[in-house]
Amino acid sequence: MELIMSVINNALSELAKKESTASIEAAVVPKVKTRSPLVWVVAGFTLSLAMGGWAISQGPAVDNSISTRDIQVSVIDTSEGNSEGSPEAAITQPVSSPTKKLVTLDSANLSAPNTTILKSTQAKSDSVIASTESVTKPKVNPEYQAIPKSQSAPKAQSIPKEKVAKPMLVASVAKKDLAPVSNQPETSGDSDNSGMLIEQVELTPEQLSVNAQGRAQKALDANDLTGALKGYTEALRYTPRNEDVRQKLAILYFGKGDTRKAYELFQSGIKLNINSEKLRLGLSKLLVKANQAEAALSPLIHLSPSPTQDYLAMRAALSQKSQQEEIALESYQKLTEVDSDNARWWLGLAIQQERQLDFTAAKQSYQGALVRVGISSQSQGFVRDRLKILNALEESSDAN
């Protein structure tokens, strides 16, 4: 065993001597080919440009949105002492990024509690306009040119709300007709905001009456009796001498069953115009419908300076029916003067003259009725019979 160990040790020692005597040679490593750093710089710059172009292409069409509808906003201080409306400050709101979505403002949304909207005068207006400039230079509409340096607004700054007297927000919208604005100072912010001119006009009583009559007629068409009464009552209050309105209102009350109110309306109208034949005839006809013939004659007793044929005919018929001989005689005499060619009036006059025992005048009136038109053949036979009787009476009186 010891022999074997000694042999191994000898072998190991010899091996160690051989390794120590052998020279150590350096390893040969092939040189790695490297590229110039300039290539990587160019490649990185190109890649960044490509990414930037892709980002811009993915953004909204800035040119189209601005050219089709450009909104330019400026705040103008209209405090006292600034007669020409020169701007104190211009407030702009830039867009943070080209890729940020543009929001189109409408002029109707630019109003605030302490601001008023004023339409832009023309494209050559002297008011200062601050446009959005942070977007990549869009294609500017020819209507909105760059502002000269001499008219440029001061640097944008924040203005405290309480220090501005009455700021006006001026908005101009593309593709919209701009109405000119007068140079006169504002008198009311509300009128400019609403775009309406409120003018107080005083109507005459006649115009108010016409309006009330229109409402009453509409109520009648809708079978609204209450509304019609209200409308005509209001119209009569404005024009109490309007006989047509008074007559319509009285007829409505009569149809409603309030006859007393209808009579009072006619009587009050007659007091206002004592020679009103329309109201007197209207009251008489209502009394006839109410079966009051004797009372129907009372409003017709009065004669105007120039009575009409209808008035006299109604007066004669009612007086004859009520046996008011003198009134009937007077009425028929007037009728023969107004319409002398009508045989009816001559016949009525002859009858009244005969009742008054004026046979000579009655005979002449009967003869006048025969030679005129207007009566039937039966009435003509009655006239001939009366003439025979009158002739007989004359002969008997002559014999006596």
From TrEMBL:
Enumerate the TPR repeat regions by residue range.
243-276
Keywords of this entry: TPR repeat
Q: Does the keyword Lipid metabolism apply?
A: no
Q: Compositional bias (Polar residues) spans?
A: 181-194
Q: Where is this region: Disordered?
A: 78-97, 176-195
**Which superkingdom, per the lineage?**
Bacteria
Q: What is this protein called?
A: MSHA biogenesis protein MshN
